[in-house]
Each structure stands twice: as C-alpha cells, then as structure tokens.
From TrEMBL:
InterPro entries: ArsR-like_HTH (IPR011991), HTH_ArsR_DNA-bd_dom (IPR001845), Metal_resp_trans_reg (IPR051011), WH-like_DNA-bd_sf (IPR036388), WH_DNA-bd_sf (IPR036390). The keyword Ribonucleoprotein does not apply. One of its GO terms (molecular function) is DNA-binding transcription factor activity. It comes from the Bacteria. This is Transcriptional regulator, ArsR family.
Amino acid sequence: MEKQQALAAFDALGQSTRLDVFRLLIKAGEDGMSAGDISDALDVRQNTMSANLAILTRSGLIRNERHGRSIRYFADMGGMRGLLAFLLEDCCGGQPEHCQPIIERIACAC
C-alpha cells in the first residue's frame, strides 16, 4: 500500500460512524450486510450511511456486491491487510521476532 492510500484509509476511519461500520463489517465476515441493516444496527439515517459507505469504499477498506436488487457490503480484507502491512513494513528495526506479539494479536482465528 502506498502512503496516499494509507492516508485515505486513516481519513475514512478517523470518523466515528465509519469506524463503527468497518468494525461491524469485519464482524459480519463473508456474509456482509446490506446498507439498511448497517444503518439499523448503528442507528444512522440511510442517506448519512450512504455517504459513509461511499467514503469507506473509495478508501479500499470495504467493497460491495450487488445481490439481486440489493447491495451487500463487506470488509475488504485485502485493503485491511495492505494497511496493516504498511504500518508494520519497517517494524522492529530488522528484528521480526519483536513483531510476533503484534502479529499474534491481530491474527484471525477463523
């Protein structure tokens, strides 16, 4: 991930509702969620949610798929991995064993 992409991701996550959306979609996993379900779960108006989903999509942290007449949203795990890799790129001054606790903490058990 390039620096500008990382900045866009941090900008997207720097707003409370968008951070909540991203975490909710991570929790939803491969089933994803519709925009309406996300709005209901977070008690956010649908037009406000649309704007937030658009920002998160442009940042590369979430993606959407059309399912019939509805659109489902998913956490983009590639985008999240890219952001984490960007953050850990130069981790621990060439001593990767020092990074292992961080990696173990963020590793998914799924």
